[in-house]
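pasting for ref
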Amino acid sequence: METTHNKVRPKHSGTKQLFDNPTLEKLSHTHIATPVTIFFVAGGVLGYYAFTHTNVANWAIGSLFLTGATVFTFVEYWVHRSVYHIEPTTEARANFQYIAHGVHHEYPKDKTRLAMPPIIAAIAAATLFILFFFLMGESAYAFFPGFIWGYAAYLLVHYSVHAYAPPKNFMKQLWINHAVHHYKDGNAVFGVSSPLWDYIFGTMATMDKTKVSENL
């Protein structure tokens, strides 16, 4: 089995069984509305709590929210580049890379694997909130909504670029950028919801992108 995004030829239909256990296999698929709803609602509840049950000033809540959303774009970039595209130097790393992300490069049109399984995502989110609360105290109630709304927005963008044709406006560039990553250079353009960190860290591809979007 090929395990790296650079060796696998993308298939434009179908899916792939990852686990023999039917429960694990079912959990590896998710409808995009499930995690998006969970994290938008959770962010709204935490944000409401920040306004009504903390001593954080309203202007600070807004600033912390925007900071959280910006921090998420960096985490998105870093996880995609350093975790999902980890070099498969051992069999264990290769298997992890394929299950976590390689299967998505092989079956980019599989709409049920465009988001992390909600159970895993919820555990990760709860762990991060505890960490942020330990570091920031009650300010985490304002910071974390921006962070997880950033994640929900990323999920919507990622789903859209794989499920729909590019729009005829400035958003089209996101479709083109992600098409470059999938079909031209898997070692470039790691940002999905924003190209900011690709420009900062020099991983924005410089190739001609005029015809790349037709693959999406």
